[in-house]
Design a protein that fits this description.
Strand content of chain A: under 5%
Strand content of chain B: under 5%
Shape of chain A: globular
Largest sheet of chain A: none
Number of helices of chain A: 12
Number of strands of chain A: 0
Number of helices of chain B: 22
Largest interface: A-B, 69 and 77 residues
Oligomer: heterodimer
Number of strands of chain B: 7
Radius of gyration of chain A: 23 Å
Structural class of chain B: mainly alpha
Shape of chain B: globular
Number of domains of chain B: 2
Structural class of chain A: mainly alpha
């Protein structure tokens, strides 16, 4: 069981890392030929860092758009973040102090996730506009994430996994030392779902995570009059204007 | 007055009501397709080419490699629904394909089908679709129901800008021979003559002369409207509607009076007699650049020191955000002034320096509100601070008029509603769409009117002015309730009679 899961996790993690890197390189190398920040926009780089920071941490634009979607979306994402951080207790020995501090609250973070996801799913069914734009994969993605969070919560409250063994397995993964893992169907489900998530991440709408940082309407500085902005492919269209006139 | 419409005008109620989705509500709406001559004049095939699917798919792929925004926007949407109730065309029609995300999806589903792993192997699961004739028809209809106003991009958690997607789609359609008549015909005229109206130099000269006579008669001041004057300090680039249309022309008179009173030498150019740049609307970098270069050529030819743009929304976007990129560098101009400047910035500067004076009592017969034009609001700036595009026009209006009242906060500033006629839709074949799309703005106007008995709505965009003149009567207002900000300025300007 341990070997089987190890191989799957290594494999999908590799796809995840390579897939995301490929996308990030793609985004970083495609030029943005025109200045298109949604204004009012920051006039300095520092300002842009703060703008993106507010989007990432506070979901500023979504807050302006819809308070319900913001609430559910924010609870899910920050629940997920906290759960992930709390999971570091399986990968650190001795456990980092702040991880130890978070760990006892892990189930509550999981519930935060579940609550957020349930709200988002409800919106997909109940709001006619959102229902209209939802493809099967949009429903599935939420169900899928709920299954991951749900299987985690089940292990916390009902079908306990052997935590000591799980930790040995996790530390083994880090050391490329395939540990043993007793068969716990919920744990297997939990880990396989995580593997699948890693696998589909670079090929799905989950690309919104790296995408935000490359979105020209959010990451550009508003200074087109002060600094001439020109894309590589547009340079030849420039003729010899770019050069100072001689004489 | 307006004849009875052949469609139901949406009711501007007590608040902006989000309609239930009505699939197909606007599936009959589409603009005239460009004729062969219009297409060829702007570098596209005359009619739909035989292998259009192949070429369109290839063009889409090519554009995702040229425009990072397009690539990121096609990948990143999570269908959260934040934008679904933000588009004025959706609010006015209820057609779900007018929800920004659904409009993007018309292109995204094709992108997914041909360019993503999931779309290639599991199209049904992720909503990917083949590019069929039906899809092309939907593109043509619904990418011409977007005024590229960017309101949705304000609310999208990733800043996805439907304007970029609709520009790309229009570029693809033009490339396979299905361009839009209104835009392409106009761009052709600019390439040939220099302005959207096809107004030749002689007609322009006559019009400007006539204006000189009118102002002399009305105000007793010999205000000049110079054309092609070499060595003038300021080149004024203004939408050609300012030369003849109402209420635009009173704005032009306002600019001329400001220049006159401040003692600035200025000129209009017959070569660049158009500020608007419809190359933007059809997503064509090449056409947009060709139009923009006329401004550079005119500035060099006339030897001016500054370039100033008149009141025009998308024009100011191209001017402020793109001109330096498309036609720069402008190192031959006076570096003490930004290139280009907006006429509002010029007037605002002159006011704060005390070089001109306004007597707001001259406008005491008016109670005014201000419509933030979409592309000024969300795609440009004025002055040195972010958000100056909201502050400067209001300060100018308040200096010119004692009775100013803003519309509700969530309908102005960055949240402003488009007039309903922007982005290449200001054509009579789309009048139903234009009228319905104006509903949210009309609702906000009605509300401020009930509280403050508004007599006029001021704007700084030629399209807004034309659009409102046409649609105000559908909502129980008078067509002349829309005015230029510089009409208020011109009327309030304290003029020295001898100058």
């Amino acid at each position: 069981m341990g070997l089987f899961l190890s191989v799957i996790l290594y494999g999908t993690l590799l796809v995840f890392v390579v897939g995301i890197l490929r996308k990030v390189i793609q985004y970083a190398t495609i030029p943005a030929p025109l200045k298109i920040p949604t204004t009012p926009a920051p006039t300095t780089r520092t300002g842009v860092v703060f703008r993106l920071g507010r989007e990432v941490v506070l979901f500023e634009s979504l807050f302006k758009a819809s308070k319900w979607t913001w609430l559910f979306g924010w609870l899910f994402h920050f629940g997920l973040l906290l759960v992930l951080l709390a999971h570091l207790r399986y990968f650190t020995e001795p456990v980092w102090w702040w991880v130890a501090l978070l760990a006892p609250f892990s189930p509550y973070f999981g519930m935060m996730m579940m609550f957020g996801l349930a709200g988002l799913l409800a919106r997909r069914f109940l709001v006619d506009r959102v229902r209209y734009i939802s493809a099967p994969s949009d429903f599935l993605m939420l169900v899928f994430l709920m299954a991951i969070a749900g299987s985690g919560l089940i292990m916390r409250y009902w079908l306990h996994a052997d935590i000591v063994q799980v930790k040995e397995f996790a530390l083994g993964l880090l050391a490329f030392d395939f540990g043993l893992l007793g068969f716990n169907p919920i744990l297997v489900l939990h880990l396989v779902l995580v593997a699948v998530l890693l696998l589909i991440f670079p090929f799905s709408k989950l690309l919104h995570a790296p995408g935000l940082f490359f979105s020209p309407s959010r990451n550009q500085v508003d200074n087109p009059r002060e600094r001439r902005h020109i894309a590589r492919w547009a340079k030849p269209l420039d003729g010899n204007r770019g050069e100072k006139p001689h004489g | 007055m307006a004849k009875a419409p052949e469609f139901d005008v949406p009711e501007a109620g007590d608040y902006i009501f989000t309609p239930p989705v009505l699939p197909g509500a606007m599936s009959h709406s589409q603009p005239f397709v460009a004729k062969e001559a219009h297409q060829e004049a702007v570098g596209y095939p005359g009619e739909l080419i035989d292998n259009w699917q192949e070429v369109a798919i290839e063009k889409l792929g090519e554009m995702t490699k040229k425009y990072r925004g397009l690539q990121v926007y096609l990948d990143s949407c999570v269908k959260c629904g934040a934008c679904t109730d933000k588009c004025h065309y959706f609010l006015g029609t209820g057609d779900p394909k007018n929800m920004p995300v659904a409009r993007q999806d018309l292109l995204r589903k094709v992108y997914r089908r041909y360019y993503t792993l999931a779309g290639k192997y599991l199209p049904k699961l992720v909503g990917a679709e083949d590019l069929t004739e039906e899809v092309l028809d939907d593109w043509y209809k619904y990418y011409h129901q977007c005024s590229q106003c960017r309101r949705c991009s304000v609310y999208c958690p990733y800043g996805i800008d439907t304007a970029e997607v609709s520009m790309a789609a229009r570029e693809i359609m033009a490339t396979v021979g299905k361009g839009q008549k209104y835009c392409n015909e106009i761009i052709g005229k600019v390439h040939k003559i220099g302005n959207n109206l096809g107004l030749p130099e002689k007609a322009l000269a006559n019009t400007l002369e006539g204006l000189e006579e009118d102002v002399l008669e009305d105000d007793g001041v010999a205000v000049k409207f110079p054309l092609d004057v070499k060595g003038a300090d300021v080149l004024l680039v203004t939408p050609s509607a300012d030369f003849f249309a109402e209420p635009h022309i009173d704005g032009l008179i306002g600019y001329a009076k400001v220049f006159h009173q401040a003692g600035l030498s200025w000129t209009v150019s017959s070569h660049a007699s158009e500020a608007a740049n419809f190359g933007l609307f059809i997503g064509s970098y090449e056409n947009m650049q060709k139009v923009a270069l006329r401004i550079r050529e005119a500035a060099l030819e006339l030897g001016v020191k500054r370039i100033v743009f008149g009141e025009c929304g998308h024009a100011w976007r191209v001017g402020y955000s793109f001109l330096n990129t498309l036609a720069g560098p402008f190192d031959f101009l006076d570096s003490n002034y930004p290139v280009p400047q907006h006429i509002i910035e010029v007037t605002h500067d002159l006011l704060s320096q005390g070089r001109i004076k306004l007597d707001p009592e001259a406008n005491d017969d008016k109670r005014v509100t201000f419509h933030d034009s979409c592309n000024v609001a969300r795609a440009s700036r004025m002055g040195s601070k972010a958000g100056g595009q909201f502050v400067l026009p209001r300060e100018v209006i308040k200096a010119a008029c004692n009775n100013f009242f803003d519309m509700r906060a969530d309908t102005i500033g960055e949240a402003t509603f488009c007039c309903g006629g922007g982005g290449g839709l200001l054509t009579d074949d789309l009048i139903e769409l234009r009228t319905k799309g104006a509903m949210p703005r009309m609702q906000a106007l009605k509300e401020v009117n009930e509280q403050h008995q508004i007599t006029h709505m001021a704007a700084i965009c030629a399209i807004c002015k034309s659009q409102f003149s046409k649609v105000l009567p559908y909502y129980g207002f008078e067509m002349d309730q829309i005015i230029s900000v510089h009409q208020l300025v011109g009327d309030a300007l304290v003029m020295d009679t001898e100058h």
